[in-house]
């Protein structure tokens, strides 16, 4: 199946990447924009939903119908020690950190730092492998982002898929950071 093949390739990419780890010394990024690359390979920015604090893959990150606003990110490299992905609003106000929300069908969202202690440390999972955003789940690197359609056209909810479960979205996406935008 096409999607499985895609995930497999993605998985291999990460494993091969790990082998090449020493050669891929790319640093952390600050003030970066995150883009989701879908199966049709168009890159859409990842925006913040003001209604629910969740992240959305959006053709227009300022889509006011869906109440979206753009974010910039400070991201660590996987070689770094700190795996907290911090988001900032356009006005410079801190938005919070990226977090997978199991209680919300594994939607990926942003929560303020004040909830980190309550979250038991699971927030500190995201970092960059080269320019790709990956999740460190107890030393296993994972990249299982999916885009899930919403009631708005051109807006997809960013979700996470747990190993071997049914995909919780419409199509897989690779999330990459770019400092140049
Ligand atoms: C982040 O990038 C934006 C757009 O390129 C720029 O306007 C802003 O000054 C930058 N902020 C920081 C803290 O570098
Ligand atoms: C991907 O292609 C599908 C079908 O053509 C389209 O509906 C969807 O909006 C596209 N998604 C992105 C992120 O470009
Ligand atoms: C995110 O914020 C926390 C708390 O301020 C900080 O410890 C961490 O280094 C930041 N992460 C990045 C990648 O800058
Ligand atoms: C900055 O923008 C965010 C999102 O729109 C908003 O929640 C926040 O109150 C704003 N902060 C300031 C100081 O205007
Ligand atoms: C949460 O933290 C407590 C105390 O450190 C620990 O015993 C427990 O295993 C943690 N739970 C998870 C799911 O990590
Ligand atoms: C992390 O791994 C544990 C144990 O393998 C699993 O139960 C959990 O669902 C994983 N979490 C994510 C976000 O993948």
Description:
The protein has 181 residues and is mainly beta. Helix content is 10%, strand content 42%. It has one helix at 2-19, and strands at 29-37, 43-49, 55-58, 68-75, 86-89, 94-101, 107-111, 126-129, 132-137, 140-142, 145-149, 155-160, 171-172, 174-178. Strands 1, 2, 3, 4, 5, 6, 7, 11, 12, 13 and 14 form an 11-stranded antiparallel sheet that branches. The chain is globular, with a radius of gyration of 15 Å. The N and C termini lie far apart (35 Å). One 2-acetamido-2-deoxy-beta-D-glucopyranose binds next to loops. One 2-acetamido-2-deoxy-beta-D-glucopyranose binds at residues 69, 89, 91, 93.
Describe the structure in brief.
The protein has 181 residues and is mainly beta. It is 10% helix and 42% strand. The termini are far apart.
Count the helices. How many?
Answer: 1
Distance between the termini: 35 Å
Strand proportion, as a percent range, falls in: 35-45%
Shape type: globular
Backbone structural class = mainly beta
Mean pLDDT: 80
What low-confidence regions span 5 or more consecutive residues with pLDDT below 50? 1-25, 115-123
Bound molecules: 2-acetamido-2-deoxy-beta-D-glucopyranose
State Rg: 15 Å
Task: Tell me which oligomeric state these chains represent.
Answer: single chain
| Largest beta-sheet details | 11 strands, antiparallel
What proportion of the residues is helical, as a percent range?
A: under 10%
Order of helices and strands: HEEEEEEEEEEEEEE
Number of strands: 14
């Amino acid at each position: 199946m096409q999607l499985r093949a895609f995930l497999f390739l993605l998985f291999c990419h990460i494993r091969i990447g790990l082998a090449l780890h020493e050669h891929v010394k790319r640093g952390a990024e600050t003030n970066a924009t995150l883009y989701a690359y879908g199966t049709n390979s168009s890159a859409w920015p990842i925006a913040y939903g003001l209604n629910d604090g969740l992240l959305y893959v959006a053709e227009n990150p300022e889509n006011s119908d869906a109440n979206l606003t753009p974010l910039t990110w400070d991201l660590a490299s996987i070689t770094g020690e700190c795996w907290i992905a911090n988001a900032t609003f356009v006005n410079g106000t801190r938005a919070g950190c990226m977090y997978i929300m199991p209680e919300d069908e594994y939607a990926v969202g942003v929560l303020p730092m004040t909830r980190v202690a309550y979250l038991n440390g699971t927030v500190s999972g995201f970092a960059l492998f080269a320019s790709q955003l990956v999740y460190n789940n107890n030393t296993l690197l994972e990249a299982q982002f999916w885009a899930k359609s919403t009631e708005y056209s051109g807006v997809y909810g960013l979700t996470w898929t747990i190993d071997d479960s049914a995909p919780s979205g419409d199509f897989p996406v690779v999330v990459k950071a770019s400092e140049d935008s």
